[in-house]
Amino acid sequence: MKGKILDIEIELPSTTRYVAENYYSIIKDITIAGGNPWTVGDLRILFDNLSDVRIVTKKGYLVFKYEDESIRFNFYNGFAYNTASVPDILKFAKDNDDFDMMVMALPHDGLYTGKQMTKQEADKLFVDGIEYFHDKEDKGGFWGVLEDIKEDAIESAIEFAFGTDTAMESWTRGAELASKSGSMMTVERIPV
């Protein structure tokens, strides 16, 4: 994972929000499609707030291209993630549902539950992805400079957040479910 992300290839999975009343039918549909759904008990171990949880209902993938390797993430039916968990106080600047946050939450949440990479690698990937999307934005003039300052501050805040006790608790939560999670998101590292 040398340097910055050079390119991201995206085929986002289709997802649905967890709703308790609908979850039985979602589990049934995922199982029929060959997926491996979570139990509600599993979801409660992994996520503090189930209202933020999204469940993959149709497969997708992301490929992150670095100068020394490409990293491909495949997301299968039943994979669950809870977006980027942006604290309410910061949502004025960056929201969970912003495209860059949503895309980067997929592998980051999967790595935190499946442990297919180290925490440091998972956190670096997330920050590198946010920087990639930031660099792709059209910047111009005075407002572009202000936007750069805002985005740099957001990236610094994200890096700080990953060093907190709360982030470490998230990393260690649900360790007994890592193998199940690993079957719902695979990681392939391809040297360049």
* Main sheet specs: 4 strands, antiparallel
Shape: globular
Spatial strand arrangement across the major sheet: 1-4-5-7
Uncertain ranges? none
In total, how many domains does the architecture comprise? 1
The overall strand count is 7
Helix content: 40-55%
Category by helix and strand content:
alpha+beta
Strand proportion, as a percent range, falls in: 15-25%
**Helix/strand order:** EEHHEEEEHHHHHE
Distance between the termini: 11 Å
- Write down the overall mean pLDDT: 88
Radius of gyration: 17 Å
- The helix count comes to 7
Fold and architecture overview:
- The chain is 47% helix and 19% strand.
- It has helices at 20-32, 40-46, 99-114, 119-136, 141-162, 165-172, 178-184; strands at residues 7-11, 14-17, 54-58, 60-65, 69-75, 80-81, 185-191.
- It has a 4-stranded antiparallel beta sheet. A 3-stranded antiparallel beta sheet has the order 2-3-6.
- Strand 4 (60-65) and strand 5 (69-75) form a beta hairpin.
- Helix 3 (99-114) packs antiparallel against helix 4 and helix 4 runs antiparallel to helix 5 (141-162).
- It is globular.
- The termini are close together.
